[in-house]
Amino acid sequence: MAKICVIGTGYVGLVTGTCFADIGHQVTCLDIDQNRIDQLHQGIMPIYEPGLEQIVEQNVDAGRLDFTTDYSEALQGADFAFIAVGTPSDDDGDADMRYVKQAVMSIAQHLDHPITIVNKSTVPVGTGDWVAEIIQEMNGANTFPFSVVSNPEFLREGSAVSDFMNPDRVVLGSTDRAAAEKVATLYEALRSPIMITDLRTAEMIKYASNAFLATRISFINEIANICESLGADVKEVARGMGMDQRIGPAFLDAGLGWGGSCFPKDVKALAHMAATHGAHPQLLQAVMNINRNQRMRAVEKLEKALGSLAGKTIGVLGLSFKPNTDDTRYSPALDIIRMLIEAGATVQGFDPQAMTASQAEIPELQLCTSPYDVAKNADALLLATEWNEFKSLDFARIKANMRGDVIVDGRNIWYRMNLHQMGFTYFGMGVPNLSEN
Ligand SMILES: NC(=O)c1ccc[n+]([C@@H]2O[C@H](COP(=O)([O-])OP(=O)(O)OC[C@H]3O[C@@H](n4cnc5c(N)ncnc54)[C@H](O)[C@@H]3O)[C@@H](O)[C@H]2O)c1
Question: What is the CA(69)–ligand 1 centre distance, in A?
Fold first, then answer.
């Protein structure tokens, strides 16, 4: 059993701290957001993540998990300090490191015993060296012994607890191999492959992994657009490609493109790092451009069906950037809604978890109580996020509620033949348009 302090209690920090407590470690999660910590003390989750609330409650009750805003309390006797604060994009596309810097300075101020500092935030290559320099500079020669280990996180929102508990691999990077091996012992109970490498390589593995996944999605979206021009069906193309063991089926779903708190900022940050070091990240630029254009494809389909969008009512199903999360950061749904409102449309939407966050971002968005409410008087319906509860709707009821008959299935989840036969004008992403045949 180790004593762990986790700094930053968001999607990554709260899941990391809770899961470490669940496998027997003693964990204190710290955040500078007093409201967030007060809520956690009352058992209220600051984020929606399936299964998280129950496992937080169990570990708090078992006395293995606690929350605080006080660095001296959280670091007292801690063997490990995990940093899991946000690293959003700054104006240049670089990672904004101000939260990491503040967290490191706070650790330095309260360092009164030897500790291993573990960086879980996604940080530019070279950050590990810089963390050590800050602590040395602030504490001088009298500093207590410390080591820095990079431990990038690969969990996905929506399945974060199960991803943390069953990782494909745990990556650890350090100039101090013994420190990385010490961190590896924390994960022993998970019985997953552990890879130990140098600091910079570990930091790079995270960026390269996210950039590759984003590339696969942009690739299949480009193929989808070519399929549309040539009359092929991208769903079948992806199925046929995915059966090739060299390719595999994951991340080959054509749609509205990627969003969320990671891919957009991480691809941008990698391209920025490359450019500032004299490299030419041409593929990464294309991947980002394709993704940007993919949102516009949905708007173009609506314009093709309805003509001018001014004065039209569009219903949008799904607002979060993907299903099973309330996270709306860089959500394709919200980007498209902004374009529709800009074009003069009225937009009404529904999401099982992301309504409050969406309306905070777009006050003009009219919130509905169900998919059927979204359909009311709508000229067109856009499926933006593929929540399970949208997969089997009563389309007769949807049709009766709508003013028009246009459906844009932005995630290709519905049977287009059925909808066509019911009299809808159906558009998918990269699939033949039955209404034109
Ligand atoms: N969200 C994901 O799916 C995911 C997956 C893998 C990696 N990551 C990476 O993990 C990091 C955290 O992401 P997130 O989505 O959990 O962020 P988040 O925005 O959900 O949470 C960050 C938390 O850190 C707190 N914080 C900021 N400064 C602090 C400080 N000085 N001391 C203590 N707390 C502080 C904030 O109040 C906030 O609660 C990022 O670098 C991200 O790229 C995220």
Answer: 15
Q: Would you tell me which CATH number, out of the four given (3.40.50.12370, 1.10.10.60, 3.40.50.10310, 3.40.50.720), belongs to the domain 235-436?
A: 3.40.50.720
Give the tens place of pLDDT for each residue, 133-160: 999 888 887 778 999 999 999 999 999 9
Q: What is the pLDDT of residues 405-431, one digit of tens each?
A: 999 999 999 999 999 999 999 999 999
Strand partners, 146: 115
What would the CATH number be for the domain defined by 3-197? 3.40.50.720
Could you tell me if the CB of 36 is within 6 A of ligand 1? yes
Ligand 1 center to 31 CA (angstroms) = 10
For residue range 17-64, list pLDDT tens digits in order: 999 999 999 999 999 999 999 999 999 999 999 999 999 999 999 999
DSSP 8-state code for residue 89: B
Q: Known catalytic residue: 29? A: no
Against a cut of 0.90, is the pTM above it? yes
CA of 373 to the centre of ligand 1 (A): 35
Domain boundaries, the chain: 3-197, 235-436
- Phi and psi of 182, rounded to 5°? -65, -40
Please state the rounded mean pLDDT for residues 334-346.
98
The verdict on the CB of residue 323 being under 6 Å from ligand 1 is no
- Other CB atoms closer than 10 Å to residue 132's CB: what's the count? 18
Sheet holding 406-409, edge to edge: 366-367, 346-350, 313-317, 380-383, 406-409, 425-427
